[in-house]
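Quick start: what a row looks like.
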Amino acid sequence: MTIEEFIKVSGIRIANLDFKGIDASDGDGMFRWVVDILYDRRHFAVPYRMGLGHCSKARKEDSQVMTVLHGETVYVYAPELADVLDCLQSDARAGGHARFEDFADEFGYDSDSRKAEKVYQACRVSAGRMRTLLGDQFDAFMACEGL
């Protein structure tokens, strides 16, 4: 089953999208969102970032949000649920490592890096929140083919 098929059969959906603006703290610049995912009356509000290529100078879809980027008005595309779930699935897999050292080894991090350990812990928290959100459907979600 693909993530798109999981969305159709499970009824999982986006309950709310909240555009938070542009984050340039890492130097690249990213559009920031909070995506509130709803499944079986349970919510998971997840921060989600998209690259600056997810916009256009002309409004093409009603779901786009207007903002200013480098002095120009642009319209930002809203995240798709399949994309958000694909990222959450990836985080849950990464957070599934029982030991930080195994995580660091697989993803090429220095096992002495505090920043890498912070990423690992964030993945573990995300995995736990997805498990809580999906309950007995978590394993089916994790078995889905990613995008």
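That is the whole record. The beta strands are 13-23, 30-39, 42-51, 55-56, 65-69, 72-76. Residues 3-143 form one domain.
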